[in-house]
Amino acid sequence: MALERTLSIIKPDAVAKNVIGEIYARFEKAGLKVVAAKMKHLSRKEAEGFYAVHRERPFFNALVEFMISGPVIIQALEGENAVLKHRDLMGATNPKEAAPGTIRADFADSIDANAVHGSDAADTAKNEIAYFFAETEVFTR
Ligand code: RTP
Ligand code: MG
After folding, report:
1. Where is the active site (predicted)?
2. 12-26: per-residue pLDDT in tens?
3. What domains, with CATH codes, occur in the chain?
């Protein structure tokens, strides 16, 4: 299995709960390395652009409002099978359906405020990493 990268966001609810370190520890224990990272308060335009694929969905406006409600921590993670590994750590989109021990089961309150984002495939990961990071801001480790 080749090394892969994925884009991860610790959403405003989890930043507000002060569990950034606990979430990073889960990445590290699973063998995922942080190869890029920044804290940012997204503009409406940035959030709308990032979630453009969902713009026709009924939850789009609520999603954008939530993502700009406070600062987020954005990182690129690298490891074997990183996209799937990261999604396994996150758990199901709705925390009520997330498996015990997953980030969303432990830290998320609702399907809207669900603690984390993760890319859903290798090709979307590439685009999402480029959306937030210049090539010089992503490091080989
Ligand atoms: P994410 O993109 O944030 O990692 O989450 P995901 O892949 O698990 O879920 P996705 O289908 O991509 O949806 C993006 C975010 O929109 C919100 N959502 N709300 N009310 C709803 O039915 C609904 N469905 C999705 C969630 O906050 C989800 O993370
Ligand atoms: Mg998604």
Report:
1. 117 (pros-phosphohistidine intermediate)
2. 999 999 999 999 999
3. 3-137 (3.30.70.141)
Q: Is 114 assigned to a binding site?
A: yes
Residues with CB under 6 A from ligand 1: 54, 59, 63, 93, 111-112, 114, 117-118, 120
Task: Please state at what angle helix 122-132 crosses helix 82-90, rounded to 10 degrees.
Answer: 80
| pTM higher than the cut 0.90 | yes
DSSP 88-107: HHH--SSGGGSPTTSHHHHH
Residue numbers in the chain where pLDDT is lower than 70? 1
Check if the beta carbon of residue 7 is closer than 8 Å to that of residue 120. no
Kindly tell me the burial class for residue 118, based on how many C-beta atoms sit within 10 Å of its own C-beta (0-12, 13-18, 19 or more). buried
Query: Encoding tokens for residue 59?
Result: 């939850």
ipTM: 0.94
